[in-house]
Amino acid sequence: MSGNTEQERENSRRFFIEVWRKYNAGSILQPLESLIAGVIIQHPEYHNLLEDSSAALQVDFDPDQGESNPFLHMGLHITIQEQISADRPAGIRELYDIGLERLGDPHTLEHRMMECLGEVLWRAQRDQAMPDEVAYLDGVRRIVGFM
What we know:
Layout: H1 3-25, H2 31-41, H3 47-51, H4 53-58, H5 70-86, H6 92-103, H7 106-127, H8 133-143
Helix pairs in contact: 1-2, 2-5, 5-6, 5-7, 6-8, 7-8
């Protein structure tokens, strides 16, 4: 990993850690911090990691060893929530609403959407291209039973 990428990873992780600290201290949170705190609350399995900042900053998560990266996982939740809020890509909010009506559980729906988003992001990275919004929306349509 390049030095710049390592610094970005550390800064991102520090932000999650700080948001969790502020939330637990009862501090006033900015809107983005509230969004992040809400995602963290939904993931109690990550609370201990966020409370041990040295471990959280240093640990590497190896997907080849079956380890999922909690920061990536929470980041994808945040991305999806922001997409829904902004309806970007256009139509994602309607698909989310349909999926929510059918599934009844926003967290489960987000996890399913994250699979579609992760696939699209992986392909974009592999192909050194922009993420394919049409493929993403098609994937979400499939999981909500529209295709």
